[in-house]
């Protein structure tokens, strides 16, 4: 790797107080240092992108400022070939195992009456997120795992982020406050309880709604965009889904191309991981098969050659670079946890 590489220079020359480098730049720099291919750019930056730990991955000291936007975190413009539209979209039919798992969870979800908690003015959806991210440093042969304890407070009117803590430390909210009021309650990115309640319960119609909200000119395929967006959607909204909508979503996913599944165990808890893979990156949503609820997410590099150090505090499955489990509840005020 050249010391004049633009990503390295951009990070090295950051003055104090400037926001972190883009997640794409951090990832590309890591790949350059480890001799691996660049990570693909994301259509939406992620709410759970492990930026602080990713900065440690490349061994560079950067500021802690972050900028939020609907659906995720934004760290500035991307760049490079990963911004190009993929020429190899994953158009494989959903695997039989994934279809069977989704239908089974849909049936389970439909059999469990769900009471959507009422949310009064001034209340928030509180999400506690217990996450881990792989820190490979300058070598892929001795990676460790870093803890990511996150707390989020969402305004149900658009599920906009109003409070966040990384461990005990608050972080900037950025431009979530700048969402035009006319956009709220009109899409999967800025839903309201009312918008969620009116979602179609016909799975065929529901998948049309999800696909129709995606960007046809984005670097990723439509179905990969859907799945990536659903990762953030479930983090914020699972608590607010009715029995009928929850079951319809699970059934609708059986129409998505490129979907696969596996059974995993986290903290002795059996979960079903539904994955969409594109450009060598697998985005997973983790479901509890006993309820059909989404309880977490993972990101998997299918070509990873990283080996975890035996001293790491947790063991992750091969290729997992990021893993999180969440819990949700309605709280009466900002920064309340109960």
Automatic annotation (TrEMBL):
Q: Does the keyword Transmembrane helix apply?
A: yes
Residue segments, region Disordered:
1-25
- Record's keyword terms, sorted: Membrane, Transmembrane, Transmembrane helix
Q: Which residues cross the membrane?
A: 47-68
Q: Please identify the protein, giving its name as recorded.
A: CU044_5270 family protein
To which species is this protein native? Phytohabitans aurantiacus
Its taxonomic placement starts with: Bacteria, Bacillati, Actinomycetota, Actinomycetes, Micromonosporales
């Amino acid at each position: 790797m050249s010391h004049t590489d633009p990503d390295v220079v951009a990070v090295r020359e950051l003055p104090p107080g400037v926001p972190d480098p883009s997640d794409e730049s951090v990832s590309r720099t890591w790949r350059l240092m480890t001799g691996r291919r660049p990570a693909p750019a994301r259509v939406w930056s992620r709410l759970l992108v492990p930026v602080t730990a990713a900065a440690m991955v490349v061994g560079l000291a950067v500021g802690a400022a972050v900028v939020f936007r609907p659906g995720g975190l934004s760290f500035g413009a991307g760049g490079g070939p990963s911004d190009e539209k993929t020429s190899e979209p994953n158009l494989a039919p959903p695997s039989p195992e994934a279809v069977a798992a989704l239908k089974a969870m849909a049936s389970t979800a439909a059999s469990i009456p769900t009471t959507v908690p009422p949310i009064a003015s001034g209340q928030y959806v509180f999400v506690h997120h217990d996450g881990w991210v792989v820190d490979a440093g300058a070598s892929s042969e001795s990676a460790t795992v870093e803890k990511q304890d996150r707390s989020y407070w969402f305004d149900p009117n658009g599920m906009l982020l109003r409070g966040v803590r990384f461990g005990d430390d608050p972080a900037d909210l950025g431009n979530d406050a700048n969402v035009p009021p006319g956009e709220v309650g009109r899409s999967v990115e800025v839903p309201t309880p009312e918008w969620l309640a009116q979602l179609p319960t016909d799975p065929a119609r529901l998948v049309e709604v999800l696909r129709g909200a995606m960007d046809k000119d984005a670097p990723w395929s439509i179905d990969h965009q859907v799945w990536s967006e659903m990762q953030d959607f479930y983090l914020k909204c699972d608590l607010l889904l009715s029995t009928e909508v929850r079951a319809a979503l699970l059934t609708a996913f059986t129409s998505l191309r490129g979907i696969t599944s596996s059974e995993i165990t986290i903290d002795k808890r059996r979960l079903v991981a539904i994955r969409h893979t594109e450009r060598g990156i697998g985005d997973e949503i983790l479901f509890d098969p006993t309820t059909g609820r989404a309880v977490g997410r993972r990101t998997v590099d299918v070509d990873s050659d990283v080996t975890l150090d035996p001293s790491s505090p947790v063991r992750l499955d091969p290729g997992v670079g990021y893993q999180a489990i969440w819990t949700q509840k309605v709280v009466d005020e900002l920064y309340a946890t109960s």
